[in-house]
Design goal:
This protein is α+β, with helices and mostly antiparallel strands. 29% of the residues lie in helices and 31% in strands. The protein has one domain: Fumarylacetoacetase-like, C-terminal domain (Fumarylacetoacetate hydrolase, domain 2, Alpha-Beta Complex), CATH 3.90.850. It is built from eight helices and 13 strands. The strands form two sheets. Strands 1, 2, 3, 5, 6, 7, 10 and 11 form an eight-stranded mixed sheet that branches. Strands 4-13-12-8-9 form a five-stranded mixed sheet. Helix 1 crosses helix 3 and helix 6 crosses helix 8. The protein starts with a helix and ends with a strand.
Length: 262
């Protein structure tokens, strides 16, 4: 793929974010590899950084079978988190101000790194040793692609369909409990909206983080101390709209919540 086309597609995704509109799937009109999609995502990110956004972490998505089946994407995606994507736990988020178009809520576990990691060769044990704390997290995914009609190339190019996120206030040592057995319950407007175990994410959330470290390491991208890493949804995604409030609890890790307005 030429640099000109890479930049044009990255710019189109950036414009879609800012104008809150969607695009036809990039994979329908272009023969993209995952590597092409990653380069497009870097252009998309560079445009956001030109606006003053700052990278504060990374994310893996489409890690559990229920999410893969829901989206028809059968391998994980990966992207970057910026400071403007993060809101305080319990925040009421304006869909328009946040640039959200067709958001869906994910309940997952966030990892805060206390030391650098560089793939390849990163293991689950390496991830746990490098983690200062874990916490419950709502990631609100959003797609700049029409009706979520995505293939892996589309979601990688679109920064792993990331929208915004909140991290719970409780900080837990990841070595103090079995994250694979950690049970999550999620509610939407007070009604049950999903549940799952940490094992839904590649058998263990730290395995997903290790996969991400190794995948980005192949592109020369390290994990850095002080970065947040989102490890993937423990349950199917739940659509969100103005007026909705989501709460969740993960056994041993605490709670978090997020609400939405126009």
């Amino acid at each position: 793929m030429t640099t000109t086309l890479t930049e044009r597609l990255g710019d189109a995704l950036y414009d879609a974010l800012r104008a809150r509109h969607t695009l036809a799937p990039l994979s329908d009109t272009h023969d993209l590899t995952v590597e092409d999609a990653y380069r497009i995502s870097l252009r998309f990110l560079a445009r956001r950084e030109q606006d003053g956004e700052r990278v504060i972490g990374k994310k893996i998505g489409v890690t559990s079978k229920p999410v893969q089946d829901m989206l028809g994407v059968h391998q994980p995606d990966f992207g970057f988190l910026t400071d403007r994507m993060q809101y305080e736990d319990g925040a009421s988020v304006s869909l328009s101000a946040a640039g959200l178009i067709q958001p869906r809520a994910e309940g997952e576990i966030a990892f805060m790194l206390q030391s650098d990691l560089q793939g390849p060769g990163v293991t689950r044990e390496d991830v746990l040793a490098a983690t200062a704390w874990v916490a419950p997290c709502f990631e609100i995914v959003d797609s700049r692609i029409n009706d979520w009609k995505i293939k892996i190339q589309d979601t990688v190019a679109d920064n792993a369909s990331c929208g915004v996120f909140v991290v719970g206030r409780q900080r837990t040592d990841p070595r103090s409990l079995d994250l694979a057995a950690a049970a999550m319950q999620m509610w939407k407007n007070g009604e049950p909206a999903g549940s799952g175990l940490g094992s839904a994410v590649q058998g263990h959330p730290a395995e997903a983080v290790a996969w991400l470290a190794n995948t980005l390491g192949a592109f020369g991208i390290p994990f850095k101390a002080g970065e947040l890493i989102l490890s993937g949804s423990l349950a199917p995604l739940v659509p969100a709209q103005a007026g909705d409030r989501f709460t969740m609890a993960i056994a041993g890790l605490g709670e978090c919540s997020i609400a939405f307005t126009e």
